[in-house]
Design a protein that fits this description.
The protein is mainly alpha-helical and 118 residues long. Helix content is 61%, strand content 7%. Strand 1 and strand 2 form a beta hairpin. It is globular, with a radius of gyration of 16 Å. It comes from Isoptericola sediminis. This is GntR family transcriptional regulator. Pfam families: GntR.
Length: 118
Amino acid sequence: MLWTIDTGSDEPLYAQLVAQTHLAVARGDLAPGDRLPAARELATSLELNVHTVLRAYQQLRDEGLVDLRRSRGAVITAAAARDLTAVEDALRAFVAAAREARLSPEATTTLLQEELKR
């Protein structure tokens, strides 16, 4: 998986890592049992403070997406795939309804973003 960081974004750096991990699991790029890079390794490659990466990993752990173990590092959990399947199904239904209502992609995106803010 290729990690990228936008230092000009308003979104915190750790939150960008969390979002990219969620997206990678949803796309199937990361599967249950896959290991994330060591925090130091990822921090070095992205020129981040290691605490930024650790904060992202801790949030992913708190969300149940990864299991953190001393000897194994951060590993994608089996529960992560199950949880995302329901979200993917709901998104497909949402997109189908938006298409049926003849909403533009921009309007559909705006609706989703507004709902996420609630």
